[in-house]
Amino acid sequence: MIPSSQRKAELRAGRLAARDAIPAAERIERSLALAEHGLNRIEIGQGRVVSGFLPIRSEVDTRPLMAGLRSRGARICVPVILDKERLEFRELVPGAELVPCGFGTSAPGPEAQVLEPDLMLVPVAAFDAAGHRIGYGGGYYDRAIARLREKGQDPMLIGIAFNCQEVASVPAEPHDIRLPAVLTESGLRHFG
Questions:
Q1: How far is C-alpha 187 from the chain's CA centre?
Q2: For the domain with range 4-190, which CATH number is right: 3.30.565.10, 3.30.420.180, 3.40.50.10420, 2.60.40.10?
Q3: Could you say which of 31, 42, 112, 170 would form a disulfide bridge with 128 (CB–CB 3.0 to 4.6 Å)?
């Protein structure tokens, strides 16, 4: 029997290769379609905090979605890796200077306000129809969500991916946090 960590690594590599194979211009079009679906379906109140992410490599470009949510009154933040265990979410305001933050990511510097998200747009390497996800293997989001829940908060979670990142089944481990929904270029899908 293949260990779940090895199976996850294989699924991650396969789905990231499929995502990488999408031509850049098509990725832009798919990202815009995803943003349109998201803006039609995501309800977020004035002043509520949304954590998005700035795209790296061939990820979905969430900037149009984040800009649309900001125009509706949401406060936007992005993750920053603090150390091998922790993320914090720093407010992203128009014109903010971005600094390198590890793993090829960038975010506002330490002077930016740290926020706790009401809605988290979660990057996904692979996902299945039960809402199980594979990230990049560091467990940062699982730990960040668990910490928020320990503090009595329960942010809404929406995975962000392209359709080609769906797999038949993701091996779920006890520490993995299931996503109730995933947003792709085809729309917002809720899982049971």
A1: 15
A2: 3.40.50.10420
A3: 170
Comparing CA positions, the residue from 115, 142, 8 lying closest to residue 52 is: 115
Beta bridge partners of 121: 158
User: What are the φ/ψ torsions at residue 124 (nearest 5 degrees)?
Assistant: -130, 135
Q: How many residues does the chain have?
A: 192
Domain ranges of the chain: 4-190
Taking phi over 0 as left and psi of -120 to 50 as alpha, with beta for the rest, 173 belongs to beta
- Tell me 164's DSSP state: G
d(CA 29, CA 8) in angstroms, rounded, equals: 28
**CA torsion through residues 93, 62, 179, 74, sign:** positive
Report the alpha-carbon distance of residue 100 to residue 76 in Å, rounded. Answer: 18
